[in-house]
């Protein structure tokens, strides 16, 4: 399927979301997760800073929340996740407060906010809904994603994918990447923390020599499928979404072992204002309906206890992600400086 | 007015001074910000600088290469439907270049629209060559129009003399005509340079690291001081171009009957073949691509409030700009000091939207009641586009015969009544024209709107940008077409002005 047709399918998914959420409930596993039916109605004005990156799917979730809560005046400011995180910090320094909640597609940006001491603590019952290992006092991971190496199945076999992401630097594969994308930058941050700055800089230089740059990771996966490059760097769900629209797509997921190449990262949400409204708004994102919608349509990994993982992804326990505290990924500035210094940004 | 007031300052001076000072506030802010721990220059800057200059130089060369021959043809050649050709060839001005960049980017390349519809593999349009192509396609009309105006002011007798002395048509055009319109070409080329320097959307879509794009990246990392430093570097180049522009003087040749060329059928065909690709790429292709998207995806996701927001903010900007332009224009007519104040307000037009945005975000952070409000956005529009209003108010006010007001005063009218019954009715046309220009420019403005708009305030331009970033290209059709339509109205205004100029030359 062509690029536009694929995007067209994504748009059609948008139409599905207009259906009542209760239809999707039937897909849910043993419902431990809370349902929207159990939640209080939202009332009042709230400003959400939405770090985009997932196109219309998050918008669909927000539209559904709006429909369900007619008395909620939800204002959305959209921007790149890192940009909004920086805005929030700059605003607080200047004594201006605009955002009540911040939904980021990357935990690095979340860490930036909590390091600045701006995140409000979450209630214990909310934290308890999350999977063990993803429970944090100041922010709630909404969905997870794995760094993967999507590869073209005409050109490569699973055996040819190296176990180590570092080994790619010495291979002769052609590579697609999107260095401006927040998830990629978090991946580089993880590599910096695991391997050190110098090794990371050398690695970036070596890859750069054989890499083609794309605007986003959806672009990377489509380029791999078209055969423009052998292999790429992208979050897992882009491949699964592409294969959903085009089952015979010539692309498969490759995983490295125990290094930054298979980092499990999370997007999440945090409250910047006190009061019930921001907290209750966050609860909506952790409901079974939203979680299963994001899993089935966006192929993101639900992080609430009891919600089913997306189809097509190997079980999480077969992946061996590196041991890293996600909030450490907030150390983004040095990453950007390093990437700029070696000329990949 | 200046006669009766004697040594006292003209009444419009204090207000004009305040407005002029306001106009240079952004630069002061940038200087303050940049002095705060920004690196002056590094290797990365050098690349940005060379990209920016290369894009500027290539675009100017491309625009001259296309614009000058087209000016010759539209000014001198006797073709059927001359007026139509002129309008069509000037039409790319009606399309914001970021729309052209967006559609060309989507149409070409592997899996692009052309390959999907026709099956022809196409090279991708991106990088420096892509940006140069797009910028040339959408800015050559500047060169064409200024050159054409100079051509129309020439007297054909020199060419006839050269022809009598045995020079061929081509040689006489080259050696007799072109040197005399060099200033016209230069004026157009400098406009192109200015436009290229200030454009943000095209380099961003084509992924060339020019100043505007890198400033946006730094702003997004909230490296405000670094963004300010880069902005100042960009302003230095802009200032240089503005300076050069002010040095370009139109030649004062006594106009006569101008040249007429009668191309043969083969020559007409050749012209059409050479210039058809320009029109196809600049106008037909974007409209086709939007048409295809509209047909394929309909109007999904579009909300009429985006158009309303655009119109609303632009209308406010137009209104405020005209109100502020009146004292400035009057001060400019009243005396030399006023003329200087007017010059200061012109600075805003040279400040790219992204630079204005950077400065005003900082102002907003210091003055929280302004931050992320419509007021600050309108202020940005006004500061940027005030010169358009000033210029148009001033030129009508200058044409006003002062004896009319004196006569009214002599007949017993108070100054207020004289203004209401004489001055205002006679200058209202200029005010409306100025307001219309500000409205249309504000409607198209992208980067400042992205940076300064209130939360949830989506305009046609920002919605278009968001759809580009999210990859939902199809949803860009409606806002894109609406923006083109609005801009076409602006072009109509401009061309009607140009037609007047033509009458001045030929009618007398």
UniProtKB/TrEMBL annotation, chain A:
<keyword id="KW-0732">Signal</keyword>
<protein>
    <submittedName>
        <fullName>Extracellular solute-binding protein</fullName>
    </submittedName>
</protein>
<dbReference type="Pfam" id="PF13531">
    <property type="entry name" value="SBP_bac_11"/>
</dbReference>
<dbReference type="InterPro" id="IPR026045">
    <property type="entry name" value="Ferric-bd"/>
</dbReference>
TrEMBL record, chain B:
<feature type="transmembrane region" description="Helical">
    <location>
        <begin position="227"/>
        <end position="248"/>
    </location>
</feature>
<dbReference type="InterPro" id="IPR035906">
    <property type="entry name" value="MetI-like_sf"/>
</dbReference>
<feature type="transmembrane region" description="Helical">
    <location>
        <begin position="477"/>
        <end position="495"/>
    </location>
</feature>
<feature type="transmembrane region" description="Helical">
    <location>
        <begin position="315"/>
        <end position="334"/>
    </location>
</feature>
<feature type="domain" description="ABC transmembrane type-1">
    <location>
        <begin position="307"/>
        <end position="494"/>
    </location>
</feature>
<keyword id="KW-1133">Transmembrane helix</keyword>
<comment type="similarity">
    <text>Belongs to the binding-protein-dependent transport system permease family.</text>
</comment>
<feature type="transmembrane region" description="Helical">
    <location>
        <begin position="346"/>
        <end position="363"/>
    </location>
</feature>
<feature type="transmembrane region" description="Helical">
    <location>
        <begin position="12"/>
        <end position="33"/>
    </location>
</feature>
<keyword id="KW-0812">Transmembrane</keyword>
<keyword id="KW-0813">Transport</keyword>
<feature type="transmembrane region" description="Helical">
    <location>
        <begin position="269"/>
        <end position="295"/>
    </location>
</feature>
<feature type="transmembrane region" description="Helical">
    <location>
        <begin position="53"/>
        <end position="77"/>
    </location>
</feature>
<keyword id="KW-1003">Cell membrane</keyword>
<keyword id="KW-0472">Membrane</keyword>
<feature type="transmembrane region" description="Helical">
    <location>
        <begin position="369"/>
        <end position="386"/>
    </location>
</feature>
<keyword id="KW-0997">Cell inner membrane</keyword>
<protein>
    <submittedName>
        <fullName>Iron ABC transporter permease</fullName>
    </submittedName>
</protein>
<dbReference type="Pfam" id="PF00528">
    <property type="entry name" value="BPD_transp_1"/>
</dbReference>
<feature type="transmembrane region" description="Helical">
    <location>
        <begin position="84"/>
        <end position="108"/>
    </location>
</feature>
<feature type="transmembrane region" description="Helical">
    <location>
        <begin position="172"/>
        <end position="197"/>
    </location>
</feature>
<feature type="transmembrane region" description="Helical">
    <location>
        <begin position="128"/>
        <end position="151"/>
    </location>
</feature>
